[in-house]
Amino acid sequence: MEIDENGVLRLKGRIKAAKDVSFTLNRPAVLSGDSSIAKLIMKHYHERFNHGNHNTVMNEIRQKYYITSLRSKLRKIAHECQWCRINRSLPKMPSAEGDLPPERLRHHQPPFTCTGVDYFGPMSVTIGRRHEKRYGALFTCLTTRAVHIELAESLSSDSMILALRRFIARRGTPSDVFGQRHEFRRRKQRTDEHTRGTREDEERSRRPHHNLEVYLPALRTWVAPGSVWCDLSKPRWPLH
Ligand SMILES: [Zn+2]
């Protein structure tokens, strides 16, 4: 390398004798890849050659300049170039979603015909001089997404049944109630088996409604935690 009469650092080439070779090709100016002038030069060539591939741009730059770390610096220039970003980006395709189950599509039927239920809380309440926990039972219509909230004293089954009874007294009997792990379906026909025996009678009297049967189905994808009513019961504000 040598410094010319203008103070520019240049590579000292060995092809001085070659004909039809420009002065800058024989003695290109040496520039640091981190310098601002080198970045401007690379950006200029990048745009001049239509944001093309790096080899073309590198070849054109090396006709006049020797820029250190040229390939990696050019890659960085192309990465930051807005035109290249837009050109590289792909249109966003909507994610494929499965069909809704029939319980979500009960149109022309009363609200809460198909209902999902989940608890939220606990909330601390003051009774006299003591503090106790209370839970909110959130019922939501799977079709209209209407919401009904009942207060539950505890996480026990009796507390849940009482909350469900109050809900039914206010909103009517749903045909299907889905919990996180439980499913209640309206019984279509009473069988003799269910009407026999004192224990079964006792069990039936404890049910929230005589027309509702309790099922424990295998968890379905949309019944699993994170489905419609579980999302609703996540707290979005401090509960206490
Ligand atoms: Zn570009």
UniProtKB/TrEMBL annotation:
Superkingdom to which the source organism belongs: Eukaryota
N-terminal signal peptide: none
Domain Integrase zinc-binding span(s) in chain numbering: 35-88
InterPro entries reported in the protein's UniProt record: Integrase_H2C2 (IPR041588), RNaseH_sf (IPR036397)
Ranges annotated as biased composition (Basic and acidic residues): 190-205
Gene Ontology MF terms: nucleic acid binding
Span list, region Disordered: 179-207
Name of one Pfam family that matches: Integrase_H2C2
Protein name, UniProt field: Integrase zinc-binding domain-containing protein
Organism: Eumeta variegata
Source lineage: Eukaryota, Metazoa, Ecdysozoa, Arthropoda, Hexapoda
